[in-house]
Every structure is written in structure tokens, then in C-alpha cells.
Design goal:
The chain is mostly helical. Among the domains are: about 45 residues; about 90 residues, no CATH class. Helix content is about 45%, strand content about 5%. It is built from eleven helices and four strands; from the N terminus they run H-H-H-E-H-H-E-H-H-H-E-H-E-H-H. It has a two-stranded parallel sheet with strand order 1-2. Strands 3-4 form a two-stranded parallel sheet. One of its GO terms (cellular component) is mitochondrion. Belongs to the proline oxidase family. Its cofactor is FAD.
């Protein structure tokens, strides 16, 4: 059925209707579980983190690690704060599910920690998508615009550049410097997220740097402690971004200088077409309709796959 584009495009509205009708809801869910879900068991382990534990067990028996990636499709208007709001906000539900996933992953590893060597490592991780954890993801964009304008030296590395340790100082500052769409509500929401979670925009880069500096700290060089420290926080490095190689080099330098473990999740990247179109739209003077905030003359992604592969 996935070979029919029209059906795929209309599937959200079809599923929304079918699951809103008593009786049809149960039939629809059973059908989806036995077709789409059954064909991708390693990608869809269950409705909840607890339901995924048997799959974690079987994968661990095959010496495979697991990445929890809580996936939930929501109405776009609701996710951006302009649609219908239920008794509990969508972003708060997602936050709680993320925290629950971390608890399940930690319990799973703790049960297997006794008697195992540290070299084997803990191999259950939780992916966190920051844009889903705010009342309005536009707050991240606004802070990214602010950071882009606050750093005239972004051009040293292709957009979105690299984060500075001082990037999040504005969250505790009494004044927003410079001209940007960043407002006090954005600062409140991002600050709340940062403190609540203790967890390819400049904002996300800055938050990952802040968290790695705090939670991936290595023992002091003078310490006699010999147990290696594995990163607790990992940042995603997208190879299809022009800045990736220089960003990795800069990140390694910063990690060595400040004595913390650099956690790297290396991926190719997904939104090549979207990034390219957004940049072209902005380049041709349609900034009011473009999602791009890059000041660079070139798009942030490599134009061809061979260039990405070479990186």
C-alpha cells in the first residue's frame, strides 16, 4: 500500500477518521499492527517504552544496542501552539514520555550491570527531539536567529557554525542584545526546557554543548580514577552539512580543552531537498516565505551525495 503516493498522503486523515469511530478504532489499530508494525518490528517495538522491553531483550541477546526514539504524529497547528488544546498540552505529554523512556532504559541497563564488564558498555539510548518539547518550536528558531546575528564570525565554519559556551547566557540575562525575533516568552520556554530535562539549529547545538560540558565531564587529569567515562549526552552530527568536518574538529578541540567526553551520533542527514529549497527561496528575495535563517551565500548542505560521502 505504501507504493500508492495518494494513499500515503491521505493516510493521516484516514487514520484520524477511522480511529475516531468506536469499533472501527480497534479494527484499524489491529490491522496496522499486523501489517505495517509487523514488517518493522525493530523500528516499532511497542506503544510504550515498557512494551519494548521484550524486544530489547531479544536484541541484546544478539549483542545489539537499542535507541529509543519516541515517535508521535500530531496536528501541525496543535504542535505549534495554535490548534486545539486538550487537558494536557501535547509537548508536556511528549516530555513525560521521553522521561519515561529514559527511566525504562536506565532500569533495563541497571538490571544487567551487575557482573558485566564496563567495556561491554551500556547500549540503550534515548533520542530527544528538542523541537517537540516546547509549546511552540518557533522559539528555537527565534533563538537561532539571535545567535546567528550575535556571532559575526559564523562564516569561519559554514552555517550553522559551531556553538560557544556563552550561547545560552541570554537565558539568564536581563536584556536581549541586538535585533532578533527572540522574545521573553521564548527565553522562558527554552529555559524551562533546559532545566526540566537537564538535556540543525544553532540553538540545539548550543544546548547540546551545554549538556555535554555538564554531564560528560571527565575525571581531573590529576585524579587516580582509572575507570573510563562514557558519554551520557550525544549530539547528532549530520554529514550532509557543509560544516560537518570543521564542526567535528572544533568540537573535539573544545572537548579536550574543557575535559569532557564528546558524544557523537553520526548520521547522513534527511532533509536535503527541504534545506535546498529553503535556501533558494531566501536567496531569491522571498525571505518572508523561507524557513532559512542562514546568512551564507551557499546552502548549508552539500549539493550532491558524492560530496557528502567524501566528507
Amino acid at each position: 500500500m505504501c507504493s500508492f503516493p495518494t494513499l500515503v498522503d491521505r493516510s493521516p486523515s484516514i487514520l484520524t477518521f477511522l480511529t475516531s469511530v468506536p469499533g472501527l478504532k480497534q479494527i484499524t489499530e489491529a490491522f496496522v499492527r499486523r501489517t505495517f508494525f509487523a514488517q518493522s518490528v525493530q523500528f516499532i517495538g511497542g506503544d510504550t517504552a515498557h512494551e519494548c522491553v521484550p524486544l530489547l531483550e531479544s536484541l541484546r541477546a544478539e549483542n545489539k544496542g537499542t535507541l529509543f526514539a519516541y515517535s508521535i504524529e500530531v496536528d501541525e497547528a496543535e504542535a505549534t501552539g495554535s490548534g486545539f488544546k486538550g487537558s494536557v498540552s501535547v509537548y508536556k505529554q511528549i516530555r513525560q514520555e521521553m522521561i519515561g523512556s529514559i527511566d525504562v532504559a536506565a532500569d533495563f541497563e541497571d538490571q544487567r550491570a551487575s557482573g558485566s564488564s564496563f567495556a561491554a558498555g551500556r547500549r540503550t539510548w534515548v533520542a530527544v527531539k528538542l523541537s517537540a518539547l516546547l509549546p511552540d518550536a518557533q522559539s528555537l528558531v527565534n533563538l537561532s536567529v539571535y545567535l546567528t546575528k550575535a556571532h559575526p564570525a559564523w562564516s569561519a565554519i559554514a552555517f550553522p557554525g559551531y556553538p560557544r559556551a556563552s550561547d545560552l547566557d541570554c537565558l539568564t540575562s536581563d536584556q536581549i542584545k541586538g535585533v532578533s525575533p527572540l522574545i521573553e516568552q521564548d527565553i522562558h520556554d527554552i529555559k524551562d526546557l533546559h532545566s526540566d530535562l537537564l538535556v540543525s539549529s544553532p540553538t540545539i547545538n548550543a544546548m547540546m554543548l551545554s549538556l555535554m560540558r555538564q554531564f560528560n565531564k571527565l575525571p581531573d587529569h590529576s585524579s587516580s580514577e582509572s575507570t573510563p567515562v562514557r558519554p551520557l549526552i550525544y549530539a547528532t552530527f549530520q554529514v550532509y552539512l557543509r560544516r560537518n568536518l570543521e564542526y567535528l574538529e572544533q568540537s573535539l578541540k573544545d572537548a579536550k580543552a574543557d575535559n569532557y567526553a564528546l558524544g557523537v551520533k553520526l548520521v547522513r542527514g534527511t532533509y536535503h531537498l527541504h534545506e535546498t529549497i529553503a535556501h533558494e527561496t531566501a536567496t531569491f528575495g522571498h525571505n518572508n516565505t523561507s524557513l532559512s535563517i542562514s546568512p551564507d551565500p551557499h546552502p548549508p548542505v552539500w549539493p550532491t551525495k558524492p560530496e557528502t560521502d567524501a566528507c
